[in-house]
Design goal:
With 404 residues, the protein is α/β, with parallel strands linked by helices. Helix content is 18%, strand content 31%.
């Protein structure tokens, strides 16, 4: 068995970024930039007022109050094109360009207006409430770098830079292949010895959350012909993920059958719980991640291995598993030689940290406990027994984990 870190490194070193596509800014949120973005304009394009008020010369404000002659207006989207002289003021609005000759904005709350005259009733400093040209960004300057996952905030920046289209990495295509005679799809007739296939839908949702495009190849029966035929559908995928069929049972055919089809195994079996029989290899040029059939194992392996793999395919830095400190609400036993990821729930707070409670049954097939959990308690190999109140490490399972 190899360590979790070694397995992660092996997977990531075998993957490269997918190809690119150019898309409208309207659909770019969540996508990964494939190239640096340079601004196509300067923002603001000239000195602008940050407030409603009057554009004046600071030299006219040496004695307060002072009355000035209002000679025009500078609204947003308009301008006052003459040069401001001493003793004059221009009525200006937020976003209005500062007239030539003006160097300060006096907000309207500090003035009183009488026809074409305005009295400045409170002083201010030079340059107050003026947004200088290019203070946000300048034409030709770099706005965003390649590898950035675009947030709604980034979309606003790109729009302001006059960027209507962006070149991004296409969404990696992740082919999901379930295996096992015991599986049927939700809603189909269920035989006396069968169970509902939940893994494909579960992992598919995680793939979408991580920025990939899942393709469900279906359920391969436990025979060579079915598995070989259904695996054909992964030829155009960027990554094949098999669900089940990766352990040592007589009916676990993935290694045997796909080995005949060209599967080259990099590693099989990891010192972790759950997820020990994880497999990684290459099937005729398509990377293949073989995950265990138990749902909890699939979720843990998706967090630890599949999410970073999708990052690497998407052209961004692979994420690290988010680990946070927490406090135990009860005693726990020592751990064995495998890195352990136990289902747990945050039940409160103690000393400023989350208070966590492990589920009493850690069987890796229990979907009810998995659904109720909001964190994994991560334990290192050979971790000692711990008492109530001890500090531990948890992996939050909130929906924001895949990044924003």
């Amino acid at each position: 068995m190899i360590s979790v870190e070694e397995a992660r490194n092996n997977i990531l070193s075998a993957l490269s970024s997918v190809s690119t596509e150019t898309i409208s800014l309207h659909t770019a949120s969540g996508r990964v930039l494939a190239e640096d973005i340079m601004a196509r304009r300067t923002q603001p394009p000239s000195d602008m007022s940050a407030m409603d008020g009057y554009a004046v010369k600071i030299s006219d404000l040496t004695k307060i109050p002072v009355t000035l002659t209002v000679i025009g207006e500078a609204p947003a989207g308009g301008s006052y094109d003459a040069t401001l002289q001493s003793g004059q003021a221009v009525r200006i609005f937020t976003g209005g360009p500062v007239p030539n000759g003006a160097d300060t904005i006096v907000i309207q709350e500090n003035t009183s207006r009488d026809g074409d005259s305005v009295t400045i009733e409170e002083g201010t400093e030079k340059g107050r409430f003026i947004r200088k040209a290019g203070i946000d960004f300048k034409e030709g300057g770099k706005g965003l770098s390649a590898g950035k996952t675009l947030t709604p905030r980034d979309i606003g920046l790109l729009a302001a830079m006059n960027i209507p289209w962006v070149t991004v990495r296409r969404k990696p295509v992740i082919a999901l292949l379930s295996t096992g005679d015991e599986l049927v799809r939700p809603g189909e007739p269920v035989g006396p010895n069968q169970i509902i296939s939940s893994n494909a839908l579960l992992v598919s949702a995680m793939v979408e959350m991580a920025g990939g495009m899942p393709i469900d190849l279906g359920i391969a029966q436990d025979n060579e012909q079915s598995l070989r035929h259904m695996a054909e559908g992964a030829k155009s995928a960027d990554l094949l993920v098999t669900l089940g069929g990766a352990s040592v049972g007589d009916h676990d055919l993935v290694q045997t059958v796909l080995g005949k089809e060209g599967l080259n195994i990099d590693f099989w079996r990891i010192a972790m719980r759950p997820g020990k029989p994880l497999m990684f290899g290459d099937l005729n040029g398509t990377p293949m991640l073989g995950m265990p059939g138990n749902p909890v194992s699939s979720v843990v392996c998706s967090y630890i291995f599949l999410y970073p793999a999708i990052d690497a395919l998407s052209g961004r830095s692979p994420r690290k598993t988010l680990v946070s400190p927490a406090i135990l609400s009860h005693d726990i036993k020592e751990n064995d030689q495998r890195e352990d990821y136990q289902r747990a729930k945050i039940i409160g707070e103690k000393d400023g940290l989350p208070l966590v409670e492990l589920f009493s049954n850690q069987d890796s097939s229990l979907l009810s406990a998995l659904s109720a959990a909001n964190c994994f308690l991560k334990r290192a190999p050979f971790a000692p027994a711990l008492k109530k109140g001890s500090q531990v490490s948890i992996i939050p399972l909130d929906e924001g984990y895949p990044r924003c």
